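Board notes (copied after class):
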Amino acid sequence: MNVRIFDPQGIKPEDYRHRFPELEHTPEFTELSTRALIFAWWYSNQSSPLVIYTDDDYERVKEALKRSGFNPSKNEREKILSLQFDSSLAIAIKKMGSFDPGARLKAFMMVKKIYDQYQLIIDRGPDAFEEITTKGEGENTTTTKEVDYKKYVDISAKIVGELPALLTKLEEGFAIVNVSGEEIKEDESTALSDWQRQKSDE
């Protein structure tokens, strides 16, 4: 599995912010053109192949310019290649580098688990709220079963109320892109977090 966040590959630049609505609402990105934002992704996002595999900052910034299609003025380009970023680009690079792939994958898996558990409750129906009461001892023991229909109705209404927000979170997926096409499994969120910690210790 190969998980990335805010991955611009395969997306038209004009669609990039719309594909990941969080980018549109992040103040640090408002002053950047889309191409400059994509440059920031290539240069500093923790899931960018250039960040993972290119240790040299100068090589990384050169390749990030090439892959992003960001075409600043000659003077600005020379400054960027010298790792001298203007304030808005420097702020965006810092923010883009702060997103944690492991934490986002864990958050996605948590929301998915809640969604799946809601499905189990709905599938079981009123039986999910059956209460068993035992009275007496020995041969005089009696057992009664009673369904708490009010609790069932209340919980069902709560689930219906929360579904739109859960569905939005699942659809947006915390900006996670699984570029391998394999199913994301629960234990992989821990593996990605371990990888992230290892990168930060290097």
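Comment from the instructor: The two ends are 23 Å apart (CA to CA). Residues 101-201 form one domain.
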